[in-house]
Amino acid sequence: ATPINYTAKDELPLSSLAYYRLKSVDNDGSIQYSNWVAVKNSQKLQVKIYPNPAQDYVVIEGDESLDKAKVVLLSIEGQIIKETDFSKAVTLQLNELPKGLYILKIIGKMQISHHKIIVE
Fold first, then answer.
1. What distance in Å separates the CA atoms of residue 106 and residue 5, rounded to the nearest whole number?
2. Position with higher pLDDT, 108 vs 41
3. Residue 115 DSSP code
4. Model confidence over 43-84: pLDDT tens digits?
5. What was the pLDDT predicted at 86?
6. What does the alpha-carbon distance between residue 57 and residue 26 come to, in Å, rounded to a whole number?
């Protein structure tokens, strides 16, 4: 038998590690399954955050993969300070916050990322 090569692209992997297998149906209707294969998703959210360190505000920009994402600003203790919807770009006002370290949590359709923000 001649080996057959297959390729496929999962546009929306559900996690950083996914499992796949092939189902083949022969002309006579018989079905065979391949072994399971683990595939690691190393794609990261494409996001720019500036200025950092910040004083009065911080700008968050992203590509279309962040459309309808949520941005959450957390204290270093994990308390929610601000929460807003995200679509391509958002400016968070920081001028009322005390100086210190904060965590910016970006929740995309399939991924979550955390970024440190310093308020001066």
1. 38
2. 108
3. E
4. 666 789 999 999 999 999 987 767 788 999 999 999 999 999
5. 82
6. 61
Q: Is 105 exposed, middle or buried (0-12, 13-18, 19+ CB in 10 A)?
A: middle
Read off the amino acid at residue 14. Answer: L
**What's the angle, vertex CA 71, arms to CA 68 and CA 75, rounded to 5?**
165
Q: Check pLDDT > 70 for residue 11.
A: no
Give pTM, 2 decimals: 0.63
Rounded Cα distance between 96 and 28, Å, is: 71
Query: For the chain, how many structural domains are there in total?
Result: 1
Tokens of 70: 């949520």
Q: Is residue 18 part of a domain?
A: no
Containing structural domain, residue 52? 47-119
Asked, for residue 97, whether it belongs to a domain, the answer is yes
